[in-house]
Predict the 3D structure of the following.
Amino acid sequence: MKMGALTRTVRLGFKSLMLHKLRSLLTTLGVLFGVSSVIAMLAIGEGASEEAQEQIRELGSQNVILRSVKPPDELASNQTSRVLSYGLTQADLRRAESSYPWVTRAIPVRQLQQEVRLGERALNPRVLATVPEWIDVTGRMISEGRFLSAHDEENVNNVVVLGYEVSRWLSPFDNPIGTEVKIGADYFIVIGVLLPRMRLDSDAAAPGSEVTGEVFVPLSTGTRWFGDMQVKIRSGSREMEQVELHEIVLEVETPEGVPLTAGAAREMLARNHNQRDWEVVVPLELLAKAEETKRIFNIVLGSIAGISLLVGGIGIMNVMLATVTERTREIGIRRALGAKKRHIMLQFLVECVVLAVGGGLAGIALGLGIPFLVERYADMRTIVRPDGPILAFGISVGIGLLFGLYPAWRAANLDPVEALRHE
Amino acid sequence: MAPDPQPAAGGNAPVAELKDVQRVYRMGNNEVRALDGVSVAFGAGEFWSIMGTSGSGKSTLLNILGCIDRPTGGSYHVDGTNVNELDDDGLSELRGTRIGFVFQSFNLIPQLNVLENILVPVFYRDEQPAHAEDRARMIAERVGLGGRFDHRPTELSGGQQQRVAIARALINDPPIVLADEATGNLDSTTAQEILELFDELHAEGKTILLVTHEAIIARRAQLMLRLKDGRVEKIEAGDKSR
């Protein structure tokens, strides 16, 4: 019975709105654009923040990373040949390993400037010399073969594990396990391939484009063949750098230990280095920063969406006030025929909600279409969560109710005598 | 104030009774006494016409009789209920179920078709009667609308529109039909048909209150109430009483 009355009122609302199709259509536009921008911006924001967080998570949220940084060179430009020595040392590694109780493992990483070649194909990925535990600490996965072993490290084996992108580039069609690739002047046997990073969009690096991959060799092998010295040849000058370790990854036992470890590491490095040739990267801090950025982003988005919905709501209210004036006589007739104030109130409220929901549904459709186009043409990741459209729908119902309240109240409280006399 | 004399029409028990009804409008410091002590008892099943020049208080009386306005003094009983004791909802329910309005300009709702227009007063009742739609079709046949149920008001002639309005007035089976210049917008032939319809309704036992300014039409009633300056000038017997 009650449901029947409501359905009838909704149908009546549709009929009344259809009397002025263009006006009704224009009125819904405000809510339409408001809702669609909410959904689209949420999807884009969610995508961007997800991407950022994924990259941070790849570094390992329970790790603290110490990195060598080239100090600002004040007099290097005039020098034609000199050895620049900086960065983390084996001593730092030993201190980091032994001095903090929360650090379970400390993983040294060296980065070598070498070309990697397989037959005709050559590229310059990051050649990382490290220990077998690296894979456990960073949480990366093997897709084929195996990672470096303690045996490789002890025996200074010429073996290499390829990053996914490198393997795709060097050997797009065949399984590269067992083949020999040339790194610098020496041949290394491929023993494994890593799974790609979680990013979905950079799945396949097109041939010819820059490959930012990685390959891994045992630390001992790296040191044996390539030494500590890196030679860069620039136009007219040879630049030599001596760096013992490029990176030390500290694995911390619990998340609570991360800030303590980071603080202690900063202190230790500051004490033992006479120049600022290091930095401490804390993914957990970055994660917190990313969360904060996302929060601010959401507040800004929310405000923009709120303003556009407010404008949409005011548009509805404006048109409904005009409609009430225009249909004063109808209201008078209905009151004379026995309509109570609540009937008139409901009738106009329903019309407002129908307008707002109409705009809201069209806005949801448009709002879902925009992320699709953005993904397709702007090459950005977007994530549409189901609560976005649900929220948007709820908001449009709320807008209809809120901004319909006053016009409906006005309609309901017209004096029947006056309303009936209205021309 | 002494009640006006009233000839007995058929000795019927009153279905609508005004006792010393006043309606005073305040405009700034001025008081306008639109009705100044009107006492009439409209007996059940009687056919009345109400006449009066503009300014006589005719419209005000109509509003009070139709329960869309309330007296500021005196009392008005409809079907035994004192209008002054009702709140807005009660008053709405009363006029929805006890009074059928027929207006000069038909006052159909343009976005609804014939059947929906006839059914409007049903939906505002506190309790929904069963088979309302069947009843609406029946009444539409009764007032001579034939089968034009899904036409819009704009697709109908004036006479047909007024028939829809009459069907609408009858849908809740009210004891009183209040017609305000119901033939004013119609040509004489159609007006005659509509007046005959009122005669038939009267014969079926409805109380008809016909507000008009045309003496010829007024004389069709059993009783003629003439208003002047907010008071009952006289009540005479019409042609029907003979």
